[in-house]
Amino acid sequence: MYFATIMGVAKAAAVAAIVTPGFPRAEEWAYAGLTFVYGGAAASHIAVGDQPKAWLGPLGFAGLTLASWALRPARAVAV
Predict the structure, then answer these.
(1) What predicted TM-score, i.e. pTM, was given to this entire model?
(2) Helices 2-19/24-47 angle, 10° precision
């Protein structure tokens, strides 16, 4: 049960880092962390032979995370 709490807090912190402006490095790490979590969950379900209904959700969230990263607004570059 404690692992679910840790993961929930980590995901909430990642979302906060993504939506808070001014912290581009934290945002990049948040996207990476979410991709690792969701990709790892999908891979774990597939590795143990779970049915697609178990791994399609995490795989979908990994895809949404990658799409969000790819479609994020460009950062202004200071000269």
Answers:
(1) 0.81
(2) 140
